[in-house]
Design goal:
heterodimer; A: mainly beta; four-stranded antiparallel beta sheet; 11 strands; 0% helix; B: 115 residues; mainly beta
């Protein structure tokens, strides 16, 4: 499977600020995904990021709040904008690899 | 109705027993089914994938799929304390024969294996 890394692994941010999370894969992949896992909850898909096209957002998530970049086949970023305490979650990127999906280690975000 | 539902937990089994985890899904076009294990503070780890009706075995794990009943399960034989984790069922909807990639997760079942 692909090796996926994320930066930062965790952060504590003040409300109203923005944080950009990076996801790096050791192989070229077509589809990358961003998920959110709120405390004690399961995973919810935020958006799908394909290289060379705009990200596709799921219901309840908008580009202004979660802008995504996908400049090449091994890298993507997710920005959490104008943060509030409700954005405190784990943010995970994942990739499609041979019909299976693998996750990065996640970014634990706390908004104070 | 939730798209993917897992049996309510937590589930507690003694060491050496069989742990049975169940999942139902609502969308009949679903084609791919996955079980992830998530340890506390870690990201989900893929442990089983299944695509066709029947059983699929990998070591102590067996996944069972019944598309007619829209049901997928995971059996863990000879359960060990190290199996204690949250188990997430995920379903991949494939549209038009191509990989859509979107995974929908169940709420997860917490499994505790006690010595």
């Amino acid at each position: 499977s692909a090796v996926i890394s994320q930066k930062p692994s965790r952060d504590i941010c003040q409300r109203g600020t923005s944080l950009t999370i990076q996801c790096q894969v050791d192989s070229q992949v077509t589809m990358m995904f961003w998920y959110r896992q709120q405390p004690g909850q399961s995973l919810t898909l935020i958006a799908t990021a394909n290289q060379g096209s705009e990200a596709t957002y799921e219901s309840g998530f908008v580009i202004d709040k979660f802008p995504i970049s996908r400049p090449n086949l091994t890298f993507s970023t997710l920005t959490v904008s104008n943060m509030s305490p409700e954005d405190s979650s784990i943010y995970l990127c994942s990739v499609d690899w041979g019909d299976e999906q693998y996750f990065g280690p996640g970014t634990r975000l706390t908004v104070t | 109705q939730k798209e993917v539902e897992q049996n309510s937990g937590p589930l507690s089994v003694p060491e050496g027993a069989i742990a049975s985890l169940n999942c139902t899904y609502s969308d009949r076009v679903s084609q791919s089914f996955f079980w992830y294990r998530q340890y506390s503070g870690k990201s989900p780890e893929l442990i089983m994938s299944i695509y066709s009706n029947g059983d699929k075995e990998d070591g102590r794990f067996t996944a069972q799929l019944n598309k007619a009943s829209q049901y997928v399960s995971l059996l863990i034989r000879d359960s060990q304390p190290s199996d204690s984790a949250t188990y997430l069922c995920a379903v991949n909807i494939r549209a038009g024969g191509t990989s859509y990639g979107k995974l929908t997760f169940g709420q997860g079942t917490i499994l505790t294996v006690h010595p």
